[in-house]
Amino acid sequence: MADVAREAEVSLKTVSRVVNGVSTVDAEMAARVRAAVARLGFRRNSMARDLRTRSTSATIGLLIEDLANPFYAGIAAAAAQCALENDTLLITASSEEDADRERRLLLQMCERRVEGLLVVPAGSTADHVYLRPEIEMGTPAVFLDRRPTNLRVDTVLIDNAAGARSAIEHLTERGHERIGVVSDWLSIPPMAERLSAAEAALERAGVPYRPDLIRYGLHTVPDTEAAVAEMLSGPQPPTALFALNNRLTLGVLGALSRLGRQVDVVGFDDFETAGLMAHPLTVVSYDARAMGRIGAELLFKRIAGDTSRPKTVVIPTELVERTPGRQTAERGAAARA
Q: Half-sphere exposure of residue 59, counting CA atoms within 13 Å on the CB side?
């Protein structure tokens, strides 16, 4: 600002008033300041201004698990749109399912004086009591996809149990009794909820418990491919498979393609190309963008001063069935589009 003042031959105070949009500055002086700003490439330092005025920045933070995963990308896109509509910048970071990294990133966001936090927490080992002082000092938080530990805040969840039940019911209604289930780490609460609901649905359907057809702790596509190949090579291989997230579904499809096998597959999480797969893929679908949008809307209400009791919003699921005939029709429709 001092450089701009010298260039425009005005006082520092005049520059400050012009860049902050004060309308009473002399028109000729204001024009000189704006010209100097353009020549010098000046940009106002919002962070310095906020520190000086002891205010927060027009910024919110979003912490997710994996930036490359379409599920989290949908959440981020919806949250970014809501932030834009509220003249606010969204900062996004990834915890990679590491509780220590999560804590470090969230506290760094608070140090940068974000107005609020949207959080998809790391696995169940994380304790979020460290956020209490930040919330009490005026930085609200909304948790997405998973509940916080030792913290009462707004939460937006997926109906994991209903989705898993619908998947198993779909497969048992088709006559399957040997249903393989593949899960990510059970320290991730949605995985534990989905697996528990799937096992309960199998029991209700009278399907014998088969621990040899359940695999968990699979966090990558190659791990899943190997686990599915092992199950299919057993003396009583599964006639159907249920994958508890989109990454696992890709591993299941990879294994089936490599082995040239055809079994019924249901995947939890829809994704953009699910309807184009060579292998018919039924999915448990839900609106991931709704999670990001609803979470951001709740956060901006808290920022605006809402002090009501913490809310829990549950996003419903839907089973999207794709049979071989329907698969062909969908692929033709996609090609025409």
A: 15
Long-range contacts: 203-209, Cβ < 8 Å, 24+? 205/168, 205/169, 205/172, 207/172, 207/177, 207/179, 208/177
Indicate left, alpha or beta for 22 from its phi (over 0: left) and psi (-120 to 50: alpha).
beta
**3-class SS at 189?**
helix
Q: Among positive and negative, which fits the CA dihedral 65, 71, 74, 78?
A: negative
Distance CA 263, CA 279 (A): 9
322/231 Cα distance (integer angstroms): 24
pTM: predicted TM-score of the whole model, two decimal places: 0.76
Report d(CA 164, CA 282) in Å as an integer: 12
Question: Cα–Cα–Cα angle for 291, 102, 268, nearest 5°?
Answer: 40
pLDDT tens readout for residues 178-222? 999 999 999 899 999 999 999 999 999 999 888 999 999 998 999
Buried b (16+ CB within 10 A) or exposed e, 6-24: ebbebeeebbbbbbeeeee
Query: Do 134 and 114 contact (CB within 8 A), yes or no?
Result: no
Q: What does the pLDDT look like over 113-142, one tens digit per residue?
A: 899 999 999 876 678 999 999 999 899 999
Phi/psi of residue 6, nearest 5 degrees: -65, -45
Alpha helices in 20-152 (DSSP H): 27-40, 46-53, 70-85, 99-111, 132-136
The two tokens of residue 118 are 């949207």
Surface-to-core class of residue 173, CB atoms within 10 Å of its CB (0-12 exposed, 13-18 middle, 19+ buried): exposed
User: Please, which residues have CB within 8 angstroms of residue 147's CB and are 6 or more apart in sequence?
Assistant: 155, 157, 189
- The backbone torsions φ and ψ at residue 38, rounded to the nearest 5 degrees and listed phi first, read -65, -40
